[in-house]
Design a protein that fits this description.
Order of helices and strands: HEHEHEHHEEHHEHEEHHEHEEHHEHHEHH
Mean pLDDT: 94
Helix content: 40-55%
Low-confidence stretches: 1-21
Structural class: alpha/beta
Shape: globular
Number of strands: 13
Largest sheet: 7 strands, mixed
Number of helices: 17
Distance between the termini: 25 Å
Length: 426
């Protein structure tokens, strides 16, 4: 991504266009959304306009960051951005966001302190309003597991045993060697392998980046705990059938093995359930808490924030929209509006995901988020760190005789170099 200087972007002022400080027009709101979730956002914004009279010019944008950079270069940012919580550090460092005071937002007390803390930049100011959160769970082909007489896995050893059985014991009963254990999006594209592997690194007792206080960080990737975890992950790659074919080039969009019924385990988020219920069948799979490693059952947490574009004006209307989006009414519409909800786990503590959706599977994700979840540090630009992690791990998995300690030492240096370039290295 072409990066614009903070100094240039801090000069964002009122301009013509959808944002640009014109307080008389509709709110221009962007989200990174495909057509189906965009329909949910449209319902949310229609309800907001009906309630408040404030009009919204909504734009679902798939090439979000690329188009945002173009608008930033024109000093004409959208009024409101709804995007990944992990984008906060990147946007804040470029001067794209207006800081907010949580106490000025009606309903702020209904959001957990831990979610608010994840919206703070390296300068100690709050730049995002939590909107949606999620934790990962482990999806298992229940029909296969029960046919093979296996228990629900609770540990890494259980998980590995189940993956091997799915690969070798013909769980679909067709007499062919055509089933696999785990689905792994192991591509370096968009840092997918680093994204998938992060939960296992934490479960192994290790870490990726450590917060050293006072807005500084350092790499934590070169550790004995991570060496053991990476070796365990490599064992899965190097055991025939334990991961799906082509895993090292697979992304989440080109690895359909679980819903097609050819692989039996997938560590992923709750957003896939609507699709899997249709393709595989709700009765054929189960969602379980992530089996624990030596360091526990920690799993990746992610989410979306509401951001206010710098220099866009319309402060009162932006505040009204944010207050509606975090209210029980706004959250419920966003959770149930269509088959593609845009709020997975509500940030409003007065709501329960399983009760709203009348689906007990959501309790697994809610409990994991509340008790075992960990997010990437949002105050820094973590994207290049995740990318570097994916590239380093991908190279290790491609060679079953790779030198894991040496690879982690090299990755450690690369991550610290990246943190130094962001001026956040301890």
């Amino acid at each position: 991504m072409a990066m614009l200087s903070t100094a240039a972007l801090l000069g964002l002022t009122a301009c013509s266009g959808g944002g640009g400080g014109d307080d008389s027009g509709p709110l221009e709101v962007w989200s990174r959304s495909a057509p189906d979730p965009a329909k949910t956002y449209e319902k949310v914004f229609a309800a907001f306009t009906e309630k408040t009279g404030v009009k919204v010019d909504y734009k679902p944008v798939m090439e979000f960051d690329q188009q945002l950079q173009t608008r930033a270069g024109s000093k004409d940012l959208p009024d409101v951005l709804i995007n990944d919580s992990g984008s906060l550090g990147n946007y804040q460092s470029q001067g794209l966001l207006t800081p907010i005071e949580p106490g000025d937002i009606k309903g702020n007390e209904d959001i957990a302190d831990s979610d608010w803390k994840g919206s703070v930049g390296v300068d100690g100011k709050t730049y995002g309003i939590p909107f949606s959160r999620q934790a990962f769970g482990t999806f298992v082909n229940k029909e296969w597991r029960e046919k093979l007489g296996k228990d629900v896995p609770e540990t890494w050893a259980d998980l590995e045993e189940l993956a091997t059985a799915f690969a070798k014991d013909d769980p679909d009963g067709n007499g062919k060697d055509d089933t696999y254990g785990m689905v792994v999006p192991g591509s370096t594209e968009n840092g997918y392998l680093g994204w998938w592997a992060s939960s296992y690194l934490w479960q192994g007792g290790g870490d990726i980046v450590a917060d050293t206080g006072d807005g500084t960080f350092e790499s934590a990737v070169a550790s004995p705990e991570n060496e053991k975890t990476v070796e365990w992950i490599r064992t899965q790659f190097c055991t025939k059938g334990n991961v799906q074919p082509g895993a090292l080039t697979a992304t989440t969009s080109n690895a359909p093995f679980f819903p097609e019924g050819t692989a039996g385990i997938y560590l992923t988020g709750p957003y896939v359930m609507a699709e899997y219920d249709k393709k595989l069948g709700k009765e054929k799979y189960e969602v379980i808490p992530t089996p624990a490693g030596p360091g526990g059952a920690t799993t990746l947490a992610e989410g979306e924030n509401i951001y206010f574009g710098a220099g866009s004006g319309k402060e009162a209307d932006k505040k009204q929209l944010a207050e509606f989006l975090i209210s029980p009414e706004g959250q419920e519409i966003a959770m149930t509006g269509t088959s593609q909800p845009v709020v997975r786990l509500p940030v409003n503590t007065g709501l329960d995901a399983a009760e709203v959706r009348k689906d007990d599977r959501w309790k697994v994700f809610q409990d994991s988020y509340e008790n075992d979840a960990k997010a990437f540090p949002s105050a820094i630009n973590f994207t290049p760190v995740r990318q570097g992690l994916a590239e380093g791990l991908n190279a290790v998995m491609a060679d079953c005789d790779s030198d894991i300690p040496a690879a982690l030492d090299e990755l450690d240096t690369a991550i610290n170099d990246e943190l130094e370039s962001q001026d956040v290295l301890k």
